[in-house]
């Protein structure tokens, strides 16, 4: 019985499947980075929104006093 690393299956695996796996992992990493950038922008907008609401509350309080 031949060893896997000495077979045509091994050649197909390392020359065909491994590069496809690597490319797929690169695509997944890229999508995760893109998703993280979008989430960061969303959080920045939420922070600005909260700061604006905070400033509005301060302004209303100062007008009430």
Q: Could you please describe the fold and organization of this structure?
A:
The protein has 65 residues and is mostly helical. The protein is 88% helix and 0% strand. It has one helix at residues 8-64. The chain is rod-shaped and about 90 Å long. It starts with 7 loop residues before the first helix and ends with a helix. The model has no long low-confidence stretch (mean pLDDT 92).
Question: What's the gist of this structure?
Answer:
Helix content is 88%, strand content 0%.
Give the tags:
rod-shaped
Query: Could you say which overall geometry the principal axes of the C-alpha atoms support?
Result: rod-shaped
* Ends apart, CA distance between termini: 91 Å
Q: Rg, please?
A: 27 Å
- Strand tally: 0
Q: Give the integer mean of the pLDDT values.
A: 92
Derived from helix and strand composition plus strand pairing, the structural class reads mainly alpha
Helix content: over 70%
Largest sheet: none
> Which residues form runs of ≥5 with pLDDT under 50?
none
Q: How much strand?
A: under 5%
Helix segment tally: 1
- Taken in chain order, the helices and strands follow as H
């Amino acid at each position: 019985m031949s060893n896997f690393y000495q077979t045509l299956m091994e050649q197909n695996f390392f020359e065909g499947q491994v590069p496809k796996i690597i490319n797929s992992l690169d695509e997944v990493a890229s999508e995760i980075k893109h998703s993280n950038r979008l989430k960061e922008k969303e959080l920045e907008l939420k922070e600005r929104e909260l700061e604006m609401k905070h400033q509005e509350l301060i302004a209303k309080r100062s007008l009430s006093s």
